[in-house]
Amino acid sequence: xxxxxxxxxxxxxxxxxxxxxxxxxxxxxxxxxxxxxxxxxxxxxxxxxxxxxxxxxxxxxxxxxxxxxxxxxxxxxxxxxxxxxxxxxxxxxxxxxxxxxxxxxxxxxxxxxxxxxxxxxxxxxxxxxxxxxxxxxxxxxxxxxxxxxxxxxxxxxxxxxxx
Length: 163
Fold this sequence. Notes:
Elements: H1 2-21, E1 26-34, E2 39-46, H2 53-70, E3 77-82, H3 93-98, E4 103-112, E5 115-127, E6 133-139, E7 142-147, E8 151-156
Parallel strand pairs: 2-3
Antiparallel strand pairs: 1-2, 4-5, 4-8, 5-6, 6-7
């Protein structure tokens, strides 16, 4: 199921991103989740200043038509469009660069220095000459270097400022 999920997510990204960009929006993340008899396709969109319900409705109609025409996914599906929220997923290089200095939650495929689930400050994001990407995290004063290829999931920590 994981292989099919990845194929659908990649194909949906290819189909949806140009349509979303044409409306002045950014495609942040695509998630496909298989339920009992149907798929749930979630698209997270954003723009400077945030997105509105009208933006979500417009993208839902436009992208829904494109997915139907392209028969992706070929099974029954429910399309959900929303803003990325406070716990925004970090997917692209520019996401990590944009949110330097913010608190993040990162889950890795394997343990790094004994840790798989990191919750701390995003100190740096490096792209080496070879193209190797690394995330530098500060967890209460302890610095971790996490190779990007080990990352399974990365999100901003959804903190509300109650000042």
